[in-house]
């Protein structure tokens, strides 16, 4: 199976009250840049380009939680990025309305990270 097929199988088997929201965010991330690939890592869908980029943290059913791993995310200013870590930031979406309202901002963040990786 390819990595995407593994993610598809993971998502098919996933039992989570925000499954539709997780799938919507997955689609946004993948469509943001054709350079991004996906795989299952840390027991969740994870996205990468050259290095790890962002992973779902599905330990809670209260929101969709994204963990941005690349160090460049610390320098990106965005109202949806949380945490003052030197090498990662978090994003939380409570529902589909929040995802739709922040789609463009999520795409911008992804593209900023791809640009940073290209500059490395």
Fold and architecture overview:
- With 120 residues, the chain is of the alpha+beta class.
- Helices cover 40% and strands 23% of the residues.
- The protein is built from four helices and five strands; from the N terminus they run ααβββββαα.
- The protein has helices at 3-13, 19-32, 96-101, 103-119, and strands at 37-41, 44-49, 51-57, 64-68, 89-93.
- The protein has a five-stranded antiparallel sheet with strand order 1-2-3-4-5.
- A hairpin with a 2-residue loop joins β1 and β2.
- α2 (19-32) crosses α4.
- The longest helix is centred in the last third of the chain and has 17 residues, at 103-119.
- The relative contact order is 0.17.
- The model has no long low-confidence stretch (mean pLDDT 94).
- On the 0 to 100 scale, the average pLDDT is 94
Q: Could you give the distance between the termini?
A: 31 Å
Give unreliable regions as ranges. none
User: Fraction of residues in helices?
Assistant: 40-55%
- Tally the helices: what do you get? 4
Radius of gyration: 13 Å
